[in-house]
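Moderator note: this is an archived Q&A kept for reference. The question asked for a predicted structure of one protein chain; the sequence and the answer are reproduced below.
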Amino acid sequence: MPHYPEEIEYSEKYCDDKYEYRHVILTKAIAKDMYRITACKRLLEEKEWRSLGVQQSYGWVHYEIHRPEPHILLFRRLLGTDPGTGKALAQQQQQQQQQQ
């Protein structure tokens, strides 16, 4: 039986050599709203997960559907991403070089 929290739950961040990750567990009511949007057949876009009430800094991407528990959203972003802009460090450096 799936675990549905009373409020949206956010995991601690964890990482590998390329990405940092986190998962977000939706409440039952919010999960139903998500099912209406996607029917669990596609990933959520940023504006969609934010409209559901998920709150996190910029740069996070919903990258996988966890089929056994689709109410658990899996997010990742490149290491070194600026949480204020959502741009990865490499993107920032490239933009600065282009401006010079």
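Archived answer notes: The radius of gyration is 15 Å.
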